[in-house]
Amino acid sequence: MGILGWIVLGLIAGAIAKAIMPGRDPGGIIITIVLGIVGAIVGGFVGSALFGTGIGSFFDLSTWLLAILGALIVLGIYHLVTSRGHRARG
Asked: What whole-number distance in Å separates Cα of residue 45 and Cα of residue 54?
């Protein structure tokens, strides 16, 4: 999968993860793309470690599920980091 495929996969996986994860996010579309791409990579590592499968082709269902799972993990960590910083400032 090329860089454009990773960006599209990251954008959609990040948007789905944001829709699933409750709460407000201080980031915009760029943060969504970055978190989605990082989440897809994390999902590939998790899938490889736990299930013996990684990120495959763009149209593979397991690719999307792993990318969304990874984006949820990364978004959860992002929520923890940004909410702690927000509480300390406020």
From this structure: 7
Q: Residues 33, 15: contact at Cβ < 8 Å?
A: no
Other CB atoms within 10 Å distance of the CB of residue 89: 6
Q: Give the Cα separation of 52 and 10 in Å (integer).
A: 22
Helix (H, G, I), strand (E, B) or coil at 19: helix
- Cα–Cα distance for residue pair 39/14, rounded to 1 Å: 8
Is the entire prediction scored with pTM above 0.85? no
Q: Are the beta carbons of 66 and 47 closer than 8 angstroms?
A: yes
Query: What type of residue sits at position 63?
Result: T
pLDDT digits (tens, 9 = 90+) for 26-51: 677 777 778 888 888 888 787 778 87
Q: How far is CA 67 from CA 7, 30, 54, 83, in A?
A: 12, 17, 10, 24
